[in-house]
TrEMBL record, chain B:
Family statement: Belongs to the binding-protein-dependent transport system permease family.
The organism of origin for this protein: Donghicola mangrovi
All copies of domain ABC transmembrane type-1, residue ranges: 26-222
Annotated InterPro entries: ABC_perm_TupB-like, MetI-like, MetI-like_sf
Principal location class: membrane
Transmembrane regions listed in the UniProt entry: 32-53, 65-85, 91-116, 155-178, 203-225
Membrane topology: Multi-pass membrane protein
Top-level taxon: Bacteria
Record localization: Cell membrane
Keyword terms of this UniProt record: Membrane, Transmembrane, Transmembrane helix, Transport
Name of protein: ABC transporter permease
Amino acid sequence: MSGWVSLSGVTVRRRGRTILGPLDATLNGGGLTILMGPNGAGKTTLLRVLHGLERVNTGDVHWTDPKDADGRSQGFVFQTPVLMRRSVLDCIAYPLLLDGVSRTQAREQARAHAAEVGLTVNLDQAVTFLSGGEKQKMALARALMRRPRILFLDEPCANLDGRSVKEIEEILHRIKAGGTRILMSTHDMGQARRLADDVLFLHAGKLVEQSNGDDFFRSPRTAEAKAYLKGEILL
Amino acid sequence: MNSIGEGLWQAARLVATLNPDLVEITALSLRVSLGATVVASCIGLPLGAWLAVNRFPARRFVIAILNALMGLPPVVVGLIVYVLFSRSGPLGVLGLLFTPTAMVIAQVIIITPIIASVAHQAIRDLWADYHDLLISLQATRLQRIKTLLWDGRRALMTASLAGFGRAIGEVGAIMIVGGNIDHATRVLTTAIALETGKGEFDMALALGFVLIGLAILVNLGLHFISRTERGARW
Ligand SMILES: Nc1ncnc2c1ncn2[C@@H]1O[C@H](COP(=O)(O)OP(=O)(O)O)[C@@H](O)[C@H]1O
Ligand SMILES: [Mg+2]
């Protein structure tokens, strides 16, 4: 089975503590992979390692297709959206400005992307005035501007109400259908059930279980995953 | 009390009649302080931004120096500039002592650390907010700096304003290096000191009110400029 990215012997140590790894894993197929695990499991760290935001202490990350390795072909949506001191439209347009696209053209495309993610607010207002769900959609639209081959999302629905969660999930389905690979962390079990093609279950910095979504929820193999799915608290 | 009322009255009269001496003194005050602010901003703003986004071994040391320089007594700065530019000093040949240029130089030394320090704090906070995004989007070093300077432009303007406020009200250094020479290096603050010394409190107060009015005007002007800027309302 050949995957699109594999990690071998990856560890991340911070302040004398190993917060991730040692980790060996290969991510397969397209679709939407959910990164699950309790708080502090290392989900954010793993996403950041894959996107090149976090330095690893040992091991390496190997991308099968060199095109995937380029950070510019990856989009990243942070758990807390990064708000630039600009209008909504200029925030979304920003990645294209970095690529040397003219401001007019970048804003035009940003408008299209805003519509794509269902962001129907006044795009000329400052981005801080948006609601939580709207900010997350802004971040999503911005991450899609370079038409990424891979999209990372770090608990994008952590602070959203049910309606916004539903909207975001619908958008993710559409993005996936468009051929973009998605790797998304969540500790919302219901969401994981609804979205996961594949699941990586992390606990205490280690990869405990990896399987396709149906198998994971129907018959988890490890004690940790069983306990987590039953709603027990993992320490 | 009476004296303050007199001062206000006289200030109003001097302004209304466009008293030539007042106009000359005010114009020089503005020229020197704005000149110093422009020069100090050209040095201080990039320096502050650079300190905010670059990690290098001597960074903490440079910031400590900057903070120490902020506390420099203007009189001492004036004295040092005086010695440097005096006839027998190392820069004496330039013949700048007792000219507005010398006053600008002294004020640049006084306000550059303030501007750099305020800019540093503002850009550092902005960088903390933007860091992950800019790294994620693979912005080049130059693009990062440009983005931070642009999005931080209001804070940077505030930094320059803080410098200007300090410069326009400063008296110790420019008195020493400028000499408060009539029709040559006399500015509002040194004129106030002179009038006060002569016991001409009404005139001193009048000049004082003009000085305050000027500072308020410049602040309002800059505020207005940044308010009416198009694009995002920040
Ligand atoms: N820069 C850091 N320095 C020290 N500890 C960190 C750092 N980043 C994360 N951690 C710790 O590493 C662990 C995993 O963090 P994280 O990847 O954010 O977990 P998750 O996203 O699954 O909640 C947590 O215990 C967290 O406190
Ligand atoms: Mg996390």
